[in-house]
Amino acid sequence: MSDDDPETTGSDAIDSDEKPGFSSFESADLADEESSQGLFDDLLSGEPIFENKEVLRPSYTPHELPHRSDQINKMATILVAALRGETPSNILIYGKTGTGKTASAKFVSKELESTSQKYSVPCDVEYINCEVTDTQYRVLAQLANKFIEKNKARIDDRIEGLEATLTALDEYEAAAETESEADADQSGLFDGIDDLETSEASVGTGSSTGDENHQQTNESPDEMEGSSSADIERMPPTAPGTAETDDERLDADTERSEAGDGIESDDELPVEHPLASTPFDSREDVRDRIAELEDDRDSFEEVPMTGWPTDRVYSVFFDAVDYDERVVVIMLDEIDKLVEKSGDDTLYNLSRMNSELENSRVSIIGISNDLKFTDFLDPRVKSSLGEEEIVFPPYDANQLRDILEHRSDVAFKGGALSDDVIPLCAAFAAQEHGDARRALDLLRTAGELAERSQSETIVEKHVREAQDKIELDRVVEVVRTLPTQSKLVLFAIILLEKNGVHSINTGEVFNIYKRLCEEIDADVLTQRRVTDLISELDMLGIVNAVVVSKGRYGRTKEISLSVPIDETEAVLLSDSRLSDIDDVQPFVQARFEN
Questions:
Q1: Domain limits for position 234
Q2: pLDDT tens digit sequence for 516-526
Q3: Does one domain contain both 435 and 499?
Q4: Strand locations in 275-360 (E)
Q5: I need a labelling partner for 77 at 20 to 30 A (CA). Which of 215, 221, 437, 546 fits?
Q6: Is 100 annotated as a binding residue?
Q7: pTM (2 decimals)?
Q8: Is 115 within any annotated ligand binding site?
Q9: Does 140 score more than 90 pLDDT?
Q10: Is 407 annotated as a binding residue?
C-alpha cells in the first residue's frame, strides 16, 4: 500500500481527532480529582498519633492490671481447685463501674484456661453479659450452644485420633506380613547353609574316629599326593594348615554377621502393636467406637434463640455440659440485670446443677455493680451463690494515673502526650467514683480530637473538649433509649424551662404531661407514677429533683434540668411519636414565688 492510500490518510485523521478529545477527558478527570481533594486526603496527610488505639477501649484485657493484684490473687486461690479436678466455690464480685471487675475476671479466666491446657486438666470458662442476654431462656440457650460446639470439636478430634490408630494398624499389619514373607525366604537360605555344614561335618569325620582324623590332617604332602581327587573334594576347605587360618575365618564370619547379608539381627526390639496402649482389643472395637462418637455428634441439636420450652433448653444445656469430665466456670457479668429482668430462677438452676451432674462440675462467677442485689434473691440461692465475695474499691487519682500511663505507653507514639494530659484525665475520672473506663475513654477521645485537628501533640484543651463530648454523647444515648412515657415527662420539663419556669414542681410537670399525651394519643399515667418517672430521670442524672419543705404547705419536689436543653430536645424530637408536638406552647399557671 502506498503512502497516498486514502485508508491510511483516514486512519491518521481519526487518530489526530481522538488525541485532543482524550487529553480533554484526562484534564477533566484531574480537575475532578483536585475538586474532591480534602474529604479524606487532608485527614490522611497528618501523622497519626495512635500506635494501638484498641488498648484504650474497655473491651481490651491487658497483660497486667495495676492495683488489682490482691483481688486477682484471691480469685486465683479460689479457682485453683478447678486445676485439681475439684469444684471451685462460687464467687460474687462487687464494685462500681470502671473498677476493673470484668477485666480482672477475664484475666484470671484466661490464665486458668491456659494453665489447664498446660497440665492437661479439662477446664472450660464461658462469659455471658447479662445486660445483653437478660432472660433465663437466652442465658441457657447461649450456654447450651457454646458447649455443644465444644463437644462437637472434641468429638471430631477423637474420631481423627481413632482413624489415625486404624491407619497405624494397617501399616503395622502390612509390615508384619512383609517381614513374615522375608523370614520364609531367609529360612530357605539358612536351610541350605545348614545342609552344607552337615555335609562338611560328615566329610571331616566320615566313619572314622578322631584319631584317624588327626592322622589324616597330619599327613605330609607326599602322602597327600596319593589321595584321589574325590577324597580331596570331600576334605574341609578351611582345614588347619591351609591358606585361611582360624583367625581369618573368625574375622570373615564377624564381617558377614555385621553386614547382615540382608538378614535382621535377633537383638532388634519389635515395634509395639498400635492397640497395645489403647482400651481396644481389635479393629472392630475401634470402628465401633468411631460409630458411637459419630452418633453422639449427630445427636447434639443446637437451641434456637426462641420457641422451645425452658425446661427443654435446660435439659439440652445439662446434657451438653455433662457429656465430658471437666470443670466448668460460668461468668455472668451484670448479674443484677438478669435477676431484675427474669428473677433468680436461672441462678437457682445453675447453682443446683452439681447435685445432678455425673461427669462435670459447675462453678459460677457473678459480677455486679449493685452491692444490694442479693437482698432480692431467694435465701437458698443466696447461700449457694455467695460462697465467696470479692469487693473492688474505686480507683483514686494516683491509681488512675498509673493505669493511664501503663496503657499510653502502648497506645500512643512517642512524644504524643503533653505532661498535663494524663493527670487531668485521672482527675476528671476520679471525680466520678474512680471510673477507669471513663479515664480511658477521656484519653482516647482526646487523642481522636487531636488527630482530627491534625495536632501532633495532645494537650489540655483536647482533654476538656473530650470531657464535654463524652458527657453530651452519654446524655444523647440515655435520652434516646428512654421509654416513651419517660420521654413525655422529660419533654414536659423542657417546655416548662423554655417558658422561664424555675424550681418546677411535680404538679406542673403532670399538667403539661397530660396535654402531651393527648397530642400523641398516648395513655395518661397517674400523678404518682409520673413522680416515680421523675425519680428515675433523677437517678440517670438527666434532671435534678430535690424535696423541699414549704412549711405548713407541706413538702414538694423541685425539679430542674441537668443536661443541655437544646441537644436534649433535639434527641426527643428525633422520636417519630414526639416529632409532631414541637409547637405546643404549654399554659403555665401564675404562682407566687417565695
A1: 160-284
A2: 998 888 899 99
A3: no
A4: 327-333
A5: 437
A6: yes
A7: 0.65
A8: no
A9: yes
A10: yes
